[in-house]
Amino acid sequence: MDSVKTALFKRHSNYNISVDEIGMKLDFVWAPYVLNLTHLLTDFKTKKKYPDVMVMGAGLWHMLHVSNPSDYELVLPRLKSSLVSLFPFSTDISNAYGIAEVVVMLVTTALVTLVMLLIWQTNLLMALCFPLLFWSIELIYFSAVLLKVMEGGWLPLVFATFFLTVMYIWHYGSVLKYHSEVREKISMDFMIELGSKLGTVRVLGIGLLYNKLVHGIPSIFGQFLLSLPVIHSTIVFVCIKYVPIPVVPQEERFLFRRIGPKDYHIFRCIARYGYKYVQKEDHHAFEQLVQS
User: Fold this and answer.
1) Were 217 and a residue from 11, 28, 50, 186 both cysteine, which residue would form a disulfide, CB within 3.0 to 4.6 Å?
2) At 38, phi and psi to the nearest 5?
3) Helix (H, G, I), strand (E, B), or coil: what is residue 27?
C-alpha cells in the first residue's frame, strides 16, 4: 500500500502504478464516456495488444452528463455487444462448444444404456429408467443450445456430419468387401479336385491366413496357390472376432475346425477376444495359437 498511496487520490486523469515486488503494472485510463471505451478497445485491437485483466466501469458519468437513466438502460445492451465484438474472442466458439458438449452427453447416455442392456444384462425396466432420467435433463439443455445454431453452433454439426459421412462410407465399403469375399469364396469341390498337394509343392511349416470369413475358403488363398511356388504343409485360416464380454478365458479363446479331408491339413481358427482386449502386436498370442 505504501508504494501506491500517493496515487490513490488522483482523479479525472490517466496514471499507472508498478508494483515491482509482484511484477504487476496497473494502468488507470480515464474513459468516462461510452465513446471513450469504444475508442480504447479499438486502439487495443489495432495494436493487437491487450492487457491480461481489464476492468471497465462506465455508466454513471455518461448517464449523468450525456443521457438519462431510462435511455442509458436501452443503450447499455448495445454498448456491451459492440465492446464484446472488439475483444480478441468470439461468442461463436462458446456456442459451438455448448452444442458439442450437450450432444456428447446425449450420446454418452445412449451408449451407457446399451452397455447396461448388452454387457451388464441389466433388467430392461431399470435400463430404460436410466435414459429417461438423464435425457429429461439433457434435452432441456439441448433445446436451449439449439437456439444458438445460427450463432456459431453450426460448426460442430458440420464437423459431425463430415466425420459421420466418412465413417459411413468406410463401413459401407467394409460391408461390400465382406460380401464380395463371401460371394467369391472357393468351393470345397474345387479343393478336392486339386488333391491334397493343392496343385503345388507343400513344405514343412504352418501358414496363417487372416480373413473375416467364418465359413468357406477365401478367394485370396487361390491367389496364393497361383503366385507362390510352394505353400506350407499346414494351413490355418484365422478369423478374429470380438464378443460382448470383458475377457475370453484362454481355454475358450481359440476354436479350431478341420476343413476338408484329413490329409489336406487345412484348419479354421476363430480367435475370440473380449472388449477389454488391447489390440497390439503380440507374439505370445501367436505362440498360444500354435500350441492350441
Assistant:
1) 186
2) -60, -45
3) strand
How far apart (Å, rounded) are the C-alpha atoms in residues 257 and 234?
13
Give me the residues paired with residue 271 across strands.
Answer: 240, 254
Q: How far is CA 233 from CA 62, 80, 256, in A?
A: 94, 80, 17
The predicted structure's pLDDT at residue 92: 67
Q: What is the mean pLDDT of the chain?
A: 81
How far apart, in Å, are the Cα atoms of 278 and each of 22, 39, 246, 291?
A: 50, 59, 11, 22
Quote the pTM value.
0.56
Q: Which amino acid, 137?
A: I
Residue range 216-222: average pLDDT?
87
Report which secondary-structure segment, H or E, holds 188.
Answer: helix 188-194
**Residue recorded with cell 505353400:** 231
Question: Do the Cβ atoms of 291 and 253 come closer than 8 Å?
Answer: no
Instruction: Check if the beta carbon of residue 131 is closer than 8 Å to that of residue 113.
Output: yes
Q: What is d(CA 283, CA 152) in angstroms, rounded to the nearest whole number?
A: 50
Is residue 166 scored above 90 in pLDDT? Answer: yes
**What residues have CB less than 8 Å from 28, skipping those under 6 apart?**
10, 14, 15, 16, 17
